[in-house]
Amino acid sequence: MMSDLPLDQVKTLLAVVDEQSFDAAAAVLHVTPSAVSQRVKALEQRTGRVLLLRTKPVSLTESGKVVARFARSLAQLEQDALTELGLGSSATRTVSIAVNADSLATWFLPALARLPQSHGVCFDLQREDQDHTAALLREGLVMAAVTAAPHPVQGCTSHRLGRMRYRAMASPAFVDRWLSSGPLPHQLPAAPVIVFDRKDDLQDRFLRGLTRRRTFTMVRHHIPASESFVDAVAAGLGWGMVPELQAAPRGDALVDLAPDRPLDVPLHWQQWKLDSPALAAVAEAVAEGAKESLR
Amino acid sequence: MMSDLPLDQVKTLLAVVDEQSFDAAAAVLHVTPSAVSQRVKALEQRTGRVLLLRTKPVSLTESGKVVARFARSLAQLEQDALTELGLGSSATRTVSIAVNADSLATWFLPALARLPQSHGVCFDLQREDQDHTAALLREGLVMAAVTAAPHPVQGCTSHRLGRMRYRAMASPAFVDRWLSSGPLPHQLPAAPVIVFDRKDDLQDRFLRGLTRRRTFTMVRHHIPASESFVDAVAAGLGWGMVPELQAAPRGDALVDLAPDRPLDVPLHWQQWKLDSPALAAVAEAVAEGAKESLR
What we know:
2 copies of one chain form a homodimer.
Chain A: H1 7-19, H2 22-29, H3 33-47, E1 52-53, E2 59-60, H4 62-84, E3 93-99, H5 101-105, H6 108-112, E4 121-127, H7 133-138, E5 144-147, E6 156-170, H8 172-178, H9 184-187, E7 193-195, H10 202-210, E8 220-222, H11 226-234, E9 240-243, H12 244-247, E10 255-256, E11 263-272, H13 277-293
Parallel strand pairs in A: 3-4, 3-5, 7-8
Antiparallel strand pairs in A: 1-2, 5-11, 6-9, 6-10, 6-11
Helix pairs in contact in A: 1-2, 1-3, 1-4, 2-3
């Protein structure tokens, strides 16, 4: 079935997904928004399925995800072929990767910087929680992911990168105010906590390991940026689970609340089974970087 | 019409939007997912409108946005009333704010830290592009926003915070390799560039001001985290528009490509017209912090 899909229509669908709207896709493809709309509609008629929900931003249906994933593999193979044919001098190869925020803030970028610039690879990074990056892979929105999920998404390979170690930390002043008058398991559940966003359950996991109490009544701040998260902990807004890699440079500004209770998050590299030199080079650089920085 | 809406149903809708799924909302409300589903359905029957698209994550329809916004105002007023009645000792007041990534990475968090901890305010921050934070306000997903949009969203007040100054920057090695053999307007369009995400048009705006060329063929990296963005510029992956506030601590690692061409982004504080002491205290702290850090 797939081979019967007109390539211009398939690529148009991909552009709409990447650019998040018909108008933006039209600008990138140098056609009118109405041409974009007609191509997507034609593709839907041909497959007999609704592929795209016309929400803001647009979102793919289950069938749409299958087609988008096919389209992205195809674009990658085409880019690689052009490069091998020597037609890729001005053509660059985009490698789209979903990566968790804490990896992006610490070891991931230095790993990517290992790649020789001559590769001409464009990095299209998407930031997601490590428990949710695999979903982006499954939906065909990225071709590789740093993920907590060890089991390969269908059509992908999985490779262990190492463990990212987190520690429950707070500022010295915070410890004085909230945690100095009794044992940690009794005091911590009532103290203000900082979480990254609603997908971040590291703080709750730490609390469940520390205490048997089920419900916690507390101030919860949501600070959805890695460096700002650590800034907020250092400023005394709350306690939080901080990656060791980010805690080290802060020195005495952060206190380890439970040195015998680190929390390790195993990270894996998953990528599509694609015979793409660009993707292979990125995977190798990431594996090397992880080996140096993760446990 | 609004006053006829059952409060438990309205609050349930809000929980589904905030927690992004029926299951997560059920866990927060301590009811079954089926009860959540029934309440939302009942609310839809009562209003005669579809309020929620059952996508992953769920998304609000236009009618749903109106109801969600009503619900959030209501929750805030209720929290404030409980606090005034002295019933709010364990009740905390959540202030949801949309803020652009560069503000979050620089002046915004120190501004929030000015608030006395005794306020018991929970910050629920959402990170968005400064050109898109106003949309979150309009959709009722947040009650205040740091935004580039000066004109108040309906039902909101708008207050000027100051200008955030950006400069086109690159690493010294990058300048040697890509920009040393001719004038900037000729060379920069062909050099690799780093952009934050697909909503970030600062780099394109700078280029449009610098050169008359319409199309640019170039390597574009997407690095969607403020500190990592500056790290990537310092590592030589590309040039990019860096906030002065973030460039200063990097010293010689960054070169200003066009000292006579800064790009200023005016920022505004917009918030709902709500007689809420918690929101007023936050607004005051933000205004003071902006006054010190912005132009």
